[in-house]
Amino acid sequence: MSLDGYINDRDGSIDWSNPDDELHQFHNDRYRDIEISLHGRRLYELMADYWPHVPEDAPPIQREFGRLWTEKPKVVFSRTLTEVHWNSTLVGENAVEQVRRLKAEGDGVMEVGGATLAASLIPHGLIDEYQVFVLPVVLGGGTPMFPLLDERIPLRLAETRHFDTAVMLRYVVD
């Protein structure tokens, strides 16, 4: 996210969020440990437009993530999509209940991607940990990382890590 808390700019662009190789490798390594990835529609479309089609001449680290992303089981939450691909399952209704069920059935790490999807889960206590990557840019507007909440969510800082292009802050729910 930007320093002022946005995940994209006012036009929906994320062109300001180009990770360095160390950060990209961190994401590749982290992604291997995820049991299932939960995507909102916009994030899924963004990822599906690029990662299954990484050019042959792209850096190896990007080709590796493309392979990881296409192989990883994903659940895509959307009321408008009619089909999904690349080891994905489409869910059209009741994200909160579906995520509760997935958490009860699974014993591994689930990743939630997409601000709208996360915003629907946060008030219901379905997020156990937040990994925030803060980039050195102030956007002045866009999609906020966090929704407006009726109650505070107490967190405990569990880890920090510095990369050339971002600082990672990992918080767990207290």
TrEMBL record:
Pfam families: RibD_C (PF01872). It comes from the Bacteria. One of its GO terms (biological process) is riboflavin biosynthetic process. Transmembrane segments: none annotated. InterPro entries: DHFR-like_dom_sf (IPR024072), RibDG_C (IPR002734), Riboflavin_Biosynth_HTPR (IPR050765). Residues 1-168 form the Bacterial bifunctional deaminase-reductase C-terminal domain. GO terms for molecular function: 5-amino-6-(5-phosphoribosylamino)uracil reductase activity. This is Bacterial bifunctional deaminase-reductase C-terminal domain-containing protein.
